[in-house]
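Worked example 3 (structure in, sequence out).
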């Protein structure tokens, strides 16, 4: 409704201000470093770039691909700096990647981009390709889950996924949702197969990596039912899953989620053995 539209606009304005602002998060510790605007792929529209956080020490280190939110049509890697700096301080190589945005690029362009970003990351000398994860918020969480649940045969896949505020069950959205039609190119009635293919819950299987879900209990943009249904499906498939239900809405959890991010980092450190 109108209220949801206003909330969504405010969210995107805040995301835009984060992307335009200075680097976020605590200073990088010791000899850790940040490399900005590093290209990982070329497209007709130009290079795709990201922000690479490299921890101190020779490695090889565990690695995390970060994927920003913004409704698949806004946002930038910089807005994930808080998480990137935290993870680098805990010994992870982190790559916060840009991906092509809608409506100029429709799904599956975004998934193709994040797959390339992940392959670029795991191929780096300082990365241990057997200890990897993807972490996204909102639209980025949907892409992180698809990266983990729907891998290209024969290619590396993340060993874990952290997903916050996740659009995971596309049938829960209005069939005429402008957000989804902008991303997928058509309404659900016109392209039901595309809506199903882009919905992470459709790809749940017993060989999926462990998942840490966090979601605001009063999220009005992406209802918490998305996370609850996905957690149930993963549990039924025998996949390790944690559902962290927290106070706050979609924007609040992203902006004020330092305690949640600390718990998710502990989850990743336990899996990576770091």
């Amino acid at each position: 409704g109108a209220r949801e539209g206003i909330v969504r606009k405010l969210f995107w304005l805040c995301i835009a201000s984060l992307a335009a602002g200075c680097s976020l998060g605590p200073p990088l510790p010791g000899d850790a470093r940040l490399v900005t605007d590093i290209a990982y792929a070329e497209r007709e529209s130009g290079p795709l770039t990201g922000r690479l956080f490299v921890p101190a020490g020779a490695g090889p280190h565990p690695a995390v691909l970060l994927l920003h939110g913004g409704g698949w049509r806004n946002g930038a890697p910089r807005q994930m700096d808080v998480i990137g700096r935290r993870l680098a301080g805990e010994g992870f190589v982190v790559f916060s990647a840009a991906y092509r945005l809608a409506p100029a690029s429709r799904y599956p362009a975004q998934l193709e981009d994040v797959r390339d970003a992940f392959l670029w990351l795991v191929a780096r000398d300082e990365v241990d390709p057997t200890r990897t994860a993807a972490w996204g918020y909102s639209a980025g969480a949907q892409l992180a889950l698809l990266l983990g649940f729907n891998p290209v045969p024969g290619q590396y896949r993340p060993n874990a996924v952290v997903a916050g505020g996740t659009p995971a069950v596309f049938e829960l959205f209005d069939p005429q949702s402008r957000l989804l039609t902008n991303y997928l190119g058509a309404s659900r009635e016109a392209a039901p197969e595309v809506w199903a293919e882009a919905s992470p819950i459709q790809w749940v299987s017993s060989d999926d990596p462990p998942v840490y879900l966090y979601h605001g209990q009063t999220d009005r943009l992406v209802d918490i039912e998305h996370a609850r249904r996905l957690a149930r499906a993963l549990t039924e498939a025998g996949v390790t899953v944690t559902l962290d239900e927290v106070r706050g809405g979609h924007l609040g959890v992203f902006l004020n989620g330092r305690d949640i991010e600390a718990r998710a980092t502990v989850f990743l450190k336990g899996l990576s053995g770091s």
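Notes: Residues 17-23 have pLDDT under 50 and may be disordered. The beta strands are 33-43, 46-54, 61-67, 93-97, 127-137, 161-164, 211-216, 241-246.
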